[in-house]
């Protein structure tokens, strides 16, 4: 039986573990965090990723955790409503698309892999490849040997750095940063996205159906001096400086930041690589081809990538080079289509001037009464739909081994 070490227990890691078990492999998942992380933000599952969830038998369970968002409400600095729109249209969703909290999805995937070994509170320190395996040194635990190692450890992947060199060489920043963290429920409205657009930056608060708290989201130009991605104190200071003097509920949200257990702050970046494997080490999800939160497709890329990688390795019959090559050939066009969405989406997420904001909110107010409204909506959702379905998924064999 082939032993595979997966680094990262977010979405891509547990999804890959599920499919590897289905194909007769023996996966182990190592995760730096001491326990499962339940925080995070809203993510979308659409197109081919929904098919993957269907084939895992998890569609009903995932659907039960849909966020249930109804409206997006745009407000000015004093709190006056500028415009509203349907939450699904705001998120580019249609049909069977599902919006779910990232923590809920990770929990569902981890619970579905209860026959897989999870090692929390540790991470990979070194990789030593040979012709027939990979010797893995861990930061805390003893060395272990695996047939394959897969990095599913996100934008700042340790596996990518160890196997391919410094991570910054593979990052393409989009010029903006994002910050997300939990705030008290009273700052939001249940099932409503509150958005405060300002020139060059945007602030939002949302509370999903039945949630005991809300999430605050800040989108803004990248600071001249970017804090280290693990220096939370410096990140909080940078966010407070960037939004000092801002109106609406921003002062209250910034005050709540200090108590947030799940503060997230990072550059809106993509991972662009010439290859996603070297020898017996490969990458999946954000570690290999992050599309950035602006794409709205990061979770779908992780789910589809896990499915395709497991199927490709299984079909290769013990030849990892052939398996990784098939995986890349199948995934490259899909990744390219979804990464292209990010810059297009950013143009609507952050507007450069007060005049652009006034025009956008005017169009939102007029949309329900405009002729050709359905065609306008299709033009908004069609690029997302095309990218989400830009892959033919390989079949799963009737028996695995």
UniProtKB/TrEMBL annotation:
SUPFAM superfamilies: FAD/NAD(P)-binding domain. One of its GO terms (molecular function) is FAD binding. Residues 2-339 form the FAD-binding domain. It holds the Pfam family FAD_binding_3. InterPro entries: FAD-bd, FAD/NAD-bd_sf, FAD_aromatic-hydroxylase. PANTHER family: MONOOXYGENASE, OXIDOREDUCTASE-RELATED. This is 2-polyprenyl-6-methoxyphenol hydroxylase.
